[in-house]
Amino acid sequence: MRKLSRFIVRGLFIILPLVITIELVRWLLMTIESWLSPTLEAFVPAHWYIPGMALLAFLAICALIGFTAYSRRGARLWKIPGRILAHIPGVSQVYGIIQDLFEVMSGENFEDESVVMVKMPNSEIEMIGIVTKKGTDQNDKIADLLDEEQLAVFLPMAYNVGGYMIMVPKSYTRNLSMKPAEALQLVLSGGLGSKKAPNTTIK
């Protein structure tokens, strides 16, 4: 009986991540399809419409927006909706958190030395963190609170969406060859995942 229960538990650990991932992807695709299909059907004859066309249209729209955002005018234009949402009480906080999360996961606005190992004062303990601001940054509220030799570092928490933002001297940090998204995945899982560890060579 014990062996059977072990087999079941082991099977659950293998199957559940697959099922949950597939269901989340399916839910996302179906949401996009149901959201855009009525609009697309208004322009495409019913006998021409094929399920999945709305998803392809959505990807085409994303590509078009991404292309136009590379120009100065386009970048300014696509900032307008975000600025509007940023001025709506309640909505601005939600939008800001989601935007920051996507920014961290994409890693586009981070420098190569964004992931650091932070040494705790008077201790041999170190924690993985992500540099969000530097004391040398200009026109930034957080950077204005820092000295030139200080960094604002976000310390994510394992199995949680929370974390701490601390201000530390540069001398308390050492750089890691790791992308912010990799660092978040590593810390949020508590290091228990089976994925091969990223390169953590000190720069």
Structure description:
The chain is of the alpha+beta class and 203 residues long. The chain has two domains: 2-106, no CATH class; 115-188, SH3 type barrels (Roll), CATH 2.30.30. Helices cover 48% and strands 15% of the residues. The chain contains five helices and five strands. It has helices at 2-43, 53-68, 72-86, 91-106, 180-188, and strands at residues 115-119, 126-134, 150-156, 163-169, 173-175. The chain has a five-stranded antiparallel sheet. Strand 3 and strand 4 (163-169) form a beta hairpin. Helix 1 (2-43) crosses helix 2. It is flat, with a radius of gyration of 22 Å. The termini are far apart. The model has no long low-confidence stretch (mean pLDDT 79). InterPro entries: COV1-like. Keywords: Membrane, Transmembrane, Transmembrane helix. The chain crosses the membrane at residues 7-28, 48-70. Pfam families: DUF502 (PF04367). This is DUF502 domain-containing protein.
- Spatial strand arrangement across the major sheet: 4-3-2-1-5
Task: Estimate percent helicity.
Answer: 40-55%
CA(first)-CA(last) distance: 52 Å
Main sheet attributes: strand count, strand direction, barrel closure? 5 strands, antiparallel
Rg computed from alpha carbons, rounded to a whole number of angstroms: 22 Å
Helix and strand element order: HHHHEEEEEH
Characterize the overall form.
flat
| Strand content bin | 15-25%
Number of strands: 5
The total number of structural domains is 2
Architecture blueprint of SSEs:
Layout: H1 2-43, H2 53-68, H3 72-86, H4 91-106, E1 115-119, E2 126-134, E3 150-156, E4 163-169, E5 173-175, H5 180-188
Antiparallel strand pairs: 1-2, 1-5, 2-3, 3-4
